[in-house]
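Box 3.1 A note on notation
Throughout this textbook, protein chains are presented in two layers. The first layer is the amino acid sequence; the second is a C-alpha cell string describing backbone geometry. Keep the layers aligned when reading.
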Amino acid sequence: MNSSPIRLIALDLDGTLLDDRKQISRRSLRALRAAADQGVLLVPATGRTVAGIPAELLALPGVRYAITANGARVMDLAENRALSEDYIPRDLALQVYDLLTQYECLVDLFQDGQGYTTEANAAQADRYVPENLRAYVLNSRVRLPDLRAFIAQQERGLEKLTLFFLSEDQRQKAWAKVAALGLEVVSSLPLNMEISAAGVTKGSGLRALAGALDLPAEALMACGDGGNDIPMITAAGLGVAMGNAALIADLNRVKFSLNPYNINRLTLKAGEAALKDTAYFDATRQKIMDTRAWTAKELANRGFSLTDSRSNFLFARTDRMEGGALYRALKEKGILVRHFDSPRIVDYLRITIGTQAQMEALIKALDEILEG
C-alpha cells in the first residue's frame, strides 16, 4: 500500500529524465514503473509537443497526461484532447515574429501539438541547434513555405515560439525586447529562447492539471533542471531540482525572496515538540540568556558599545577597529559573525549567542586581534 502523499510526478525531459543521448536510463525506467505500480500518475512536463515525447515514456503505465509547450497545452493522452490551452494572441505573435527578424536566430513555432519550420531553417540546423537535439528538431517539425503567413491564419492564437541563437549577446537583446511586450520568456539550455503567452509556464500547466484532477499541491512532485522548470518546481508540494548550478541559484533566490528562515514538515514537527517540552525549553532559554549576559559584560569591559538585546544575538561595535576589518579578522581565526554594509550600522557586528565555550573563544579572539 502506498502511504506517500504524492499522487502525481511531473517530469521534465531534456536534462532531467533524458540523458545526453536523449534516452531514459534503465534505473529511471525501473523507478517510474515502481511509482506507477503504486498508482502515481507520471506526467511528462516539457517544452516539446506531444509528438516529441519519447514513445518509451508514453508506453509506461501511469502516463496518461502531459504538460507540453511549457504549459501552453495540457493534454489527456488517452482521449487525445486538450484539457487546457493558453495561446499567444495572433496579432501579438505576428508582432513578436517581426521583431525577431532583427536578430541572428532560427525561429520555429508550435501549434496544436505540432512543430513547424521552413526548409531554410532546417538547412541551418547544423549551425544553430545543439548536436544532441538536432535529430529531434529535424524529425519533429513539419516544413512550411512561410511561417509568418501560417501565424496570420491562426485565429485562436499561437501555441509557442522556439528559438536558437548563435551568440549570447543576440539572445539577451531579443529576450529584453520580447519580455517588454509582456510575454513569458524562458530558456531550457544555452542560446535557446522559448516564448509563450503571458503567465504561461510549466507551473501554470501543472496547476491546471492538478485542478482538473482535484489534486492539492501537497500531492504533486515536480522534477526539472532548467530555468523553464522553476515555476513547476515551486508550484509542487515537493520540488526536485537536478544538479544544475544555474537552476539551484535561481531556486535560492526564490527561497530567500520571501523569508530567509524557511521551514519544512520535519522542522515544524521538531519545533512543535520543543515547545511542548516546556522544561527543556525554559532551561535552554535561560542558558542562552545567561550566556548573552556574560558575553555582553565581557564586551562592555573591552570598550564595546552594545544595543539592548532581548534576542539570541548582540549588536556591538568598538572604536578600536572598523567593523568590516574586525569581521574579516575574526573570520580568519575561524570565528563567524555577521557584518552589514549599510551606512548606519557599518561598524557593528551581529554576534549570535552560542555555547559558553564558543563565546569564550570569541572573547579570546577579540583580545588577540585588538591587543595584537
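The chain has three domains: 8-85+200-258, 90-196, 275-371. The first strand starts at residue 8 and ends at 11.
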